[in-house]
């Protein structure tokens, strides 16, 4: 199966291939009613490419400015900081084992660390389930 990581989803519609099938990425929140709270899950791992999630996250922050609260969680294989060989240190607020699978937005960045993520069967199972159950991937 294709590596389901490394898609800047918010900016353009693409199809990401997961072990369980394909998921069409949305043009994004083209609804008239804003959600009560937008729950965004950002996947973080060692050697993640920061730009892949920082840019889209900054865009999503603007929903909060317009009166639609936005809550971000960062999802990793563990909680805490990325490893010492990661470039820009980043913090994972929740392990995938405890992370919700029904998100408004699931943001999956790319980077050199994707090779390690795809070897983690539990993480891949979480990503597949979350991609199936989330509104936008």
Uncertain spans, ≥5 residues at pLDDT below 50? 1-30
* Helical residue percent band: 10-25%
- Tally of extended strands? 8
Distance between the termini: 17 Å
Report the radius of gyration as a whole number of Å: 14 Å
Net shape:
globular
Topology:
Layout: E1 15-18, E2 21-24, E3 38-43, H1 51-65, E4 70-76, E5 80-81, E6 91-92, E7 94-95, E8 105-107, H2 114-118, H3 121-133
What can you see in these coordinates?
The chain has helices at 51-65, 114-118, 121-133; strands at residues 15-18, 21-24, 38-43, 70-76, 80-81, 91-92, 94-95, 105-107. It has 137 residues and is an alpha/beta fold. It has a single domain (15-27, 35-131), classed as Rossmann fold (3-Layer(aba) Sandwich), CATH 3.40.50.880. The strands form three sheets. It has a four-stranded parallel sheet. The protein has a two-stranded antiparallel sheet with strand order 1-2. A two-stranded antiparallel ribbon has the order 5-6. A hairpin with a 2-residue loop joins strand 1 and strand 2 (21-24). It starts with 14 loop residues before the first strand and ends with a helix.
What labels would you give this structure?
Rossmann fold, globular, 4-stranded parallel β-sheet, two-stranded antiparallel ribbon, single chain
Short account of what is shown:
This protein has about 140 residues and is an alpha/beta fold. Helices cover about 25% and strands about 20% of the residues. The longest helix has 15 residues, at about 50-65.
């Amino acid at each position: 199966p294709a590596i389901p990581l490394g898609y800047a989803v918010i900016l353009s519609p693409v199809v990401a291939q997961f072990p369980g099938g394909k998921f069409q990425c949305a043009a994004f929140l083209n609804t008239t009613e804003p959600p009560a709270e937008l729950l965004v899950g950002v996947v973080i791992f060692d050697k993640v490419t920061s730009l892949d999630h920082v840019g889209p996250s900054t865009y999503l922050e603007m929903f909060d400015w317009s009166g639609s609260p936005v809550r971000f969680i960062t999802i990793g294989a563990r909680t805490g900081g990325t490893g010492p060989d990661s470039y820009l240190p980043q913090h994972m607020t929740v392990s995938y084992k405890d992370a919700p699978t029904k998100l408004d937005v699931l943001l999956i960045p790319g980077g050199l660390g994707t090779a390690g993520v795809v070897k983690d069967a539990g993480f891949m199972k979480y990503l597949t389930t979350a991609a199936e159950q989330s509104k936008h991937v």
